[in-house]
Amino acid sequence: LTQPGTMPMSSMSKEALIGTATLGVVFTVGVWIGKKYFHPHTLSSLLKSHKMKNDPLMNYVLDHSLREHSVLKKLRLCTLGHPKCEMMVACEHAQLMGNLARLINAKKVLEIGVYTGYNALNMALILPDDGKVIACDINEDYISIGKPFWKEAGVDHKIELRIKPAIQTLEELLTAGEAETFDFAFIDADKVNMDEYYERSLRLLRRGGVMAIDNVLWGGKVLNPDKNDLDTQSIHRLNEKIVQDTRVIVSMLTIADGVTLAIKI
Ligand code: SAM
Ligand code: CA
């Protein structure tokens, strides 16, 4: 069996060593990340993540731009051991959002779709001490993986969890009079409700507030949306709407799985 590699600062492809064990024939293939061995059943999830592709240019980008807080890195590596790790936000994408939030002096952030909370932690780390991330998810099991890291980083008091369908949380925030009070919103939950999240987040954002919408390219499926594929249909419909939406200025970035930045005018 191969030896564990030592872990460089950034790119996952350098961190992963494909290991084989043989007894005449290959009987297992796994991955070492740092000191942790990943069983073959998690390997396919890992390989789906663009961070695991052996792309020298991507490695170069990460090596020359990623400034990842040590606890954030720990959470990323821990999440990579989870069977649904492909759901985690890309680290370079999270860093961009953190930089934008810093630029606009964000204090109040909406996270729609938390998973293990990589981006919730990323945002909490850059917010001032009285800043807040309102973190919306329906799955407490995923969140329980991230929580100890939020605590370790000393920013758990800035992350306010709302465990219920995100539409309900957004409606409650609007009813509570919080329209136009948020600085930043990240839409990254289920895809069929993307427009519901977009409309409500737009009302919750202040003028000049930034919305980031993830997975707008959906692995390229938006080029030819299957009429039975509701996720792709929903993403494509929202993409078509946003480009015409005069309430926002917009950029669609090809980072990760495609990210639209919509800034409220
Ligand atoms: N932003 C996360 C990160 O920083 O790694 C990744 C989020 S993951 C792609 C999507 C999350 O949306 C999952 O944790 C899932 O439980 C959650 N989700 C799915 N449907 C939801 C809903 N109706 N309301 C709130 N959260 C939902
Ligand atoms: Ca996503």
What this model shows, in words?
The chain has 265 residues and is an alpha/beta fold. The protein folds into 2 domains: 12-66, no CATH class; 87-264, 3-Layer(aba) Sandwich (Rossmann fold), CATH 3.40.50. The chain is built from 10 helices and 10 strands. It has helices at residues 12-15, 40-48, 56-63, 70-79, 91-103, 118-126, 140-152, 166-175, 194-204, 230-242, and strands spanning 16-23, 25-33, 36-38, 108-112, 132-137, 159-163, 182-187, 205-214, 248-253, 259-264. The strands form 2 sheets. Strands 6-5-4-7-8-10-9 form a 7-stranded mixed β-sheet, with helices on both faces. It has a 3-stranded antiparallel β-sheet with strand order 1-2-3. A hairpin with a 5-residue loop joins β9 (248-253) and β10. The longest helix has 13 residues, at 91-103. The termini are far apart. The structure holds S-adenosylmethionine (SAM) and calcium ion.
SSE series = HEEEHHHHEHEHEHEHEHEE
Helicity, as a percent range: 25-40%
Cα distance spanning the termini: 57 Å
Shape: globular
* Secondary structure tally: strands: 10
What is the CATH homologous superfamily assignment of the largest domain? Vaccinia Virus protein VP39
Family: Belongs to the class I-like SAM-binding methyltransferase superfamily. Cation-dependent O-methyltransferase family.
Keywords: Membrane, Methyltransferase, S-adenosyl-L-methionine, Transferase, Transmembrane, Transmembrane helix
InterPro entries: Cation-dep_OMT, SAM-dependent_MTases_sf, SAM_O-MeTrfase
Pfam family, one: Methyltransf_3
